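tl;dr need the bound structure. longer version: we got a ligand (magnesium ion) that a collaborator sent over and nobodys looked at where it sits. i said id run it. heres the input, straight from their email, havent touched it
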Amino acid sequence: MNSVIEISVVIPVYNEEGNVFLLFERLNNVFDKLNVSKEYIFINDGSKDKSIERIKSLAKEYGYVKFVNFSRNFGHQIAVSAGLDYANGEKIVIIDSDLQDPPELIYDMYIKMKEGYEVVYAKRKSREGDPLTKKITAKLFYRILSKITEINIPVDTGDYRIMEKKIVEILKNMPEQEKYLRGQIAWTGFRQTFIEFNRHERHSGNTGYPYSKMFRFAFNGITSFSNFPLKFATYSGFIAAFIAFLLMIYALYSRFIIKDYVPGWASLMICILFLGGVQLISLGIIGEYIARLSANIKKRPLYIIDETNIAK
Ligand code: UDP
Ligand code: MG
């Protein structure tokens, strides 16, 4: 079978037995409207319910339904990565399987792409059904992340998006262990835009992202795209050294000029402050080297070329 697939839909699934069939139907409705060739790639990420049976029953009946069944739960980002590895389409959609990402949006994103974009992501205008704490922490996190990273990672955006195959090929060359896909995709550059939508409650089942997983995910986002935590020691070292310097002057002043002092105070203060500053700056220097190490270990390509007229 050599026919070209226009759109691959990558669908990570973790305990979504109540959603698989409905998602399939709604996707089909969208593709009836779009009228392009498709494949749905379900990645069952170690579900403990009947998700895989549902997926297999669809695969049996429809040739365009494909599945990858993980041996255990590896996590959402890894499930999506596997889907990207197996996708064959010219364009690839990533969508949650709990219907919080309305499949109907694929139509709009696909049309938007035609205006000349390589990535169109879906930006959440509101989040229904998420508890207030999640709304607040998510809002805060996205804003802090965008402050401390050099690349523009879109705020209030999940992984729901459509992108050209060439972006996916680049992602496959970024073998980082700790995935933060939305950051990696932003990092690749190209023409990226978004459309907005209101995010509804999940159709059925419970979130597979408890706070522990969310925290780890957020931490991945920060450490993969920012060296700010490493630089923190350098900053605080310089601040401590500066304060130490001022205090040293004061200590010397009170010791020798006004001669009003507790014996030993000046020398003790100067020692503590000086050593504290030196230690923090040294830690910062080590941090800088670790930052370089971690950049190299990530093995990201140095640059990405969209076009050139030089043959190689
Ligand atoms: N998911 C997954 N593996 C996990 C957790 C979640 O594949 O370990 C899938 C899940 O089935 C859904 C998507 O990732 O399709 C988003 O997860 P969820 O809806 O639980 O997260 P939330 O929307 O609550 O942040
Ligand atoms: Mg969800």
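gonna send this back to them w/ a short note. The chain is about 50% helix and 15% strand.
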